[in-house]
Amino acid sequence: MKRREFIQATGLTGLFLFFHGRAEAAPLVAPRPGDYPKDFNAYLRIGEDGRVGCFVGKVELGQGAMTALAMLVAEELELGLDQVDMLMGDTDLCPWDGGTGGSLSIWQFGPVLRGAAAEARAVLLAMAAERLQAPVGDLVMKGGLISVQGRPERKVSLGQLVQGKRIERHLQGVRPKPLAACTLIGKSAPRKDARVKVTGQAQFTADLRLPGTLHACVLRPPAHGLTLQSADTAAAERIPGVKVLRDGTLVAVLHAEPDEARRALEEVKADWTGTEPDVDSQSIFQHLVTKHTGLTEASRRGDLKAAEARSASVVEGEYRMAYVAHGQMEPHTSVAQWNDGRMTVWTSTQSPFRIRTQVAQTLKLAEREVRIITPFVGGGFGGKLVGPSALEAARLAKLVPGRPVQVAWGRPEDFFMDTFRPAAVMKIRSGLDKDGNVSFWDYQVFGISPNEAEFLYDFRASRYQSTGSPSGLHPLPTGAWRAPGSNTNTFGRECHVDRMATKAGIDPLSFRQRHATDQRLLRLLDQAAEKFGYLPAAGPSGHGVGLACGAWRGGLVATIAQVAVDKATGRIRVLRVVTALDVGLVVNPDGARQQVEGATTQGLGFSLTEEVQFKGGRVLDRNFDTYQLPRFSWLPSIEVVLVHNPDLAPQGIGEPAIVAIGPALANAVFDAVGVRLDQLPMTPARVLEALKGVAQSRTGVAG
Amino acid sequence: MPTTTVFTLNGQRVQSASDPTRMLAWVLRQELALTGTKVGCGEGLCGACTVLVDLEPTRSCVTPLEAVAGKAVVTIEGLAKGTTLNPMQQAFEDHHAFQCGFCTPGMILTACSLVQKNPGASRAQIIEHLDGNLCRCGAHVRILDAVEAAAKTTGGAL
């Protein structure tokens, strides 16, 4: 591939890659699905100009992986951050990766990349030692040059050393630099994607504009559960420039202009067959607790029955979470082109290698016959771990060889096709002993797995059961949503812990501290409380302060929020949120803060307004008029505490930051007005209802 | 007879051969190849497609081409002078006032229009002015910081 094509193909117009000779041929190390390659050449290539290209299967969704991963490479190779060019999410050029989700980019993949860069550094130094006739210990590496200490004229650049070639030498057991020697890791860095994003040059999938592109609009059923019986496309086909393509039940209207294609789709008349699920956004909770296929025990500790018999009181609660949309600003978009027996798909995905497998399977191609390229992705939050638009584009492109076919979902389509965060019900039964300590804890969750339901609390007897998410239980498609399971299970647990603290007459912080022995958690709670200026008071204190903590992917979070509740309107105003995290070593503190601020802001949505309205298989929310995302006017003061814990390897950041905001706000509402909101979102109607004391088919007993 | 619509785009006079009822966002992206203007919702609800029309922030996905005839349209591509960023762009870059970047062009243009008209805008006024622009990543705090900083340093001279 020529360099210009290469740059074009990557969609990274703001980043320039200069490789010559063999470095242009892709890939140097064939990606082996399921494992990260051991050979550092898979990740790193040094151009003749000394710039270092870093090839990773991770993608940039806004979370800052492009910057943080470049920092790891720059650190080990003693480069400036601007000397590293990132190429991300191209399955032909980058080594295999399992997908950009689960807060794994730094936690799991970071050590792999850093290890590769550390080995490359050692090899480069060994090569330079031979070339400069000096021992490695006398060499200094900085900014792409290696020189002899005290003899700066005896130097060689990385470009001269490598000459654009693959490095054949390898060294075993090279360790990354010790933290004390790091100059980039641990210090805030400017984002590498800043310039292209503030100038509008950043290319997202819909911005490719490949010559001859046909824009496809796919015929959708009006409801989930229905399949296509027949489609009359005659009227659409009479519109000049319109082409209709069918592949099984996939029917699409194509046109050179996207708005014309959309208009033509409206001319298609279709008959649908099938049965819609008989459930809606109100009855879903009853549905989940009655229509599951059984509870499975995830863990058990102690003797629940005996512990209950010894308890001074029993506290019960039932907690509910609604379906929530991803609502990322960039709708799912893909462009596919079938050329010379190869399918190339540019797509807004979090998981290019998984999409490659799916496209290959769908089209009965070998994986090597499929290339996935990931331009900038306009937000994902788990919703782009799946990629139906890529499969649709690929199936259609196969029918029109040579022509690029773009499938860019409209917003109503994006809402309809979303894999929502699953609705769930949590039932918790627990006891207090005569000293006000938890004697037993019996946790059931319906609709999801028990991810992170169990926390670091020291409950003497406990049981965790879940229905999981058996096929057919959920009437709507569901999937991963930022910290899957954790923000739901954390809501149930932390609200119930609060309820028990109230019952015990103990302030929520002390109550949690009494049940925690983990030093990391205790330190985190201390730092959160200190930052907030937390004044211990048993709830409801009237101050509107709520606390919650949680975990995900090794990251620990404690959130303290303050709210004001307008009793006349039921509106909750979030005044202040302190979010403290212990995520071990923080590679890019400012990047971590961006994630925490973002998670806190995003969390206001599912706490206060976001709830997918549906009836049967019909998704009633079609756009951002009825489905309300957080806005500027909702913003509380947001304060972030990053616990200094450099001895622990970096843990996940992007997701743990969101798991405790929901219960912290619900607990704050209780502290403000003395009624518990056991269901998110806490809409004004629900707040008013709770204030009236009208229980809504609760089985629980108020604490 | 084909109609043409004449307007000023980023300081240059342009003629569009598109149907006058076609939405401006598609004219910009398809006919004029300016893809910095994003389509996020298609119904004027998210603000990603915001451009300036005679300095007023305007949702180009619901604004027909004919509505800008004879007017001055500014898109994100029209803000920087060569490699020198507009001060609002610079402030967004300095404050990392974005994450995924999809809402960013609309945010920057909406912010520019406020600061040009009201260089002394308070934080509350900035919030009110930007409230119709959605950002799912939650870069809100930094966006407000960036706009406030740009207002202070430029006095509205954007």
Feature tags:
heterodimer, A: 703 residues, alpha+beta, 7-stranded mixed β-sheet, 6-stranded mixed β-sheet, 27 strands, 22% strand, globular, disordered N terminus, disordered C terminus, B: 158 residues, 5-stranded mixed β-sheet
Structure commentary:
The complex is a heterodimer of chains A (703) and B (158). Chain A has 703 residues and is of the alpha+beta class. Helix content of chain A is 28%, strand content 22%. In chain A, a hairpin with a 2-residue loop joins strand 9 (243-247) and strand 10 (250-255). In chain A, helix 2 (65-77) runs parallel beside helix 4 (109-132) and helix 17 crosses helix 18. The N and C termini of chain A lie far apart (67 Å). By secondary structure, chain B is α+β, with helices and mostly antiparallel strands. Helix content of chain B is 34%, strand content 13%. Chain B has a 5-stranded mixed β-sheet, with helices on both faces. In chain B, a hairpin with a 2-residue loop joins strand 1 and strand 2 (12-16). The mean pLDDT of chain B is 96. Chains A and B meet through helix 6 and helix 17 of A and helix 1, helix 2, helix 3, helix 4 and helix 5 of B.
Computed Rg of chain A:
27 Å
Note the gap between the termini of chain A. Answer: 67 Å
Helix content of chain A: 25-40%
Strand order of the largest sheet of chain B: 2-1-5-3-4
